[in-house]
């Protein structure tokens, strides 16, 4: 018996779903048969087959209105993907309290706000629902330069387990701890293709993820194939990041061999 991810008849809301990882997730959910709504703070062109709404996910009233709109238009809400987030580079000692507050607000509190609104609908409908929080490896290892972001993502992983226990059995809640992913902005973010290639050589998988690969993990967690998976934080990082000391030791060994020959 072949296993397929079938989300036909299900309605999914993907926050931050008009670009980058969120867009890739939305496209995979559409391919799996879901009716998809994306949201962002501004108007945007969603993936083909999706609709788009504007919403600042940090605003509880706006989030309530967005979820109500989705239910009004489609009759239900089966899947919420909390993808909206991110942070610019800023050293913790130099960033202002207001900056840190905004980062935590977007990456942690908005996730809780959207989850609360979705749960209120899912608890009352046949079949319940599934919430997938997009977290990050920054939440499980030091995150210099994005300290508040890393702390917020650690909070998302903790929140995921707590909500799974509070909201089960009708609503499953899981997280995806995402590693390095190639998007349209990757080269600019890391300083060029040569730097990206050097970074990719340190990843056991030999490359950064494609956005669709994150989307397929999300689609699995949203589907009946994951019917007994809740409270999990799934690592999607290509094998993880090589410890710096090991990388330097290997480089040193290569140099010594080169000098010996």
TrEMBL record:
<feature type="domain" description="Ketoreductase">
    <location>
        <begin position="10"/>
        <end position="184"/>
    </location>
</feature>
<dbReference type="InterPro" id="IPR002347">
    <property type="entry name" value="SDR_fam"/>
</dbReference>
<dbReference type="Pfam" id="PF13561">
    <property type="entry name" value="adh_short_C2"/>
</dbReference>
<dbReference type="InterPro" id="IPR057326">
    <property type="entry name" value="KR_dom"/>
</dbReference>
<comment type="similarity">
    <text>Belongs to the short-chain dehydrogenases/reductases (SDR) family.</text>
</comment>
<dbReference type="InterPro" id="IPR020904">
    <property type="entry name" value="Sc_DH/Rdtase_CS"/>
</dbReference>
<dbReference type="InterPro" id="IPR036291">
    <property type="entry name" value="NAD(P)-bd_dom_sf"/>
</dbReference>
<dbReference type="GO" id="GO:0016616">
    <property type="term" value="F:oxidoreductase activity, acting on the CH-OH group of donors, NAD or NADP as acceptor"/>
</dbReference>
<keyword id="KW-0560">Oxidoreductase</keyword>
<protein>
    <submittedName>
        <fullName>SDR family oxidoreductase</fullName>
    </submittedName>
</protein>
């Amino acid at each position: 018996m072949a296993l397929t991810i079938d989300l036909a008849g299900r309605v999914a809301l993907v926050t931050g779903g008009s670009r980058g990882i969120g867009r890739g997730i939305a496209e995979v959910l559409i391919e799996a048969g879901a009716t998809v709504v994306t949201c962002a703070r501004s108007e945007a062109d969603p993936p083909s087959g999706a609709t788009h709404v504007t919403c600042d996910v940090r605003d509880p009233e706006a989030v309530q209105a967005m979820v109500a709109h989705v239910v009004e238009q489609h009759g239900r809400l089966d899947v919420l993907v909390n993808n909206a987030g991110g942070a610019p580079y800023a050293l913790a000692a130099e960033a202002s309290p207001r900056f840190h507050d905004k980062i935590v607000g977007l990456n942690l509190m908005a996730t809780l706000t959207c989850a609360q609104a979705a749960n209120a609908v899912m608890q009352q409908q046949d079949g319940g629902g599934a919430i997938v929080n997009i977290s990050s490896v920054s939440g499980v290892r030091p995150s210099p330069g994005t300290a508040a972001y890393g702390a917020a993502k650690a909070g998302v992983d903790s929140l995921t387990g707590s909500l799974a226990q509070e909201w089960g059995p009708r609503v499953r809640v899981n997280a995806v701890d995402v590693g390095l992913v190639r998007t349209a902005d990757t080269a600019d973010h890391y300083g060029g293709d040569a730097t990206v290639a050097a970074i990719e050589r340190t990843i056991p998988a030999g490359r950064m993820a494609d956005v669709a690969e994150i989307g397929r993990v999300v689609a699995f967690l949203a589907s009946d194939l994951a019917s007994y998976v809740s409270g999990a934080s799934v690592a999607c990082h290509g094998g993880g990041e090589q410890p710096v000391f090991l990388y330097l030791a290997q480089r040193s060994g290569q140099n010594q061999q080169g000098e010996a020959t």
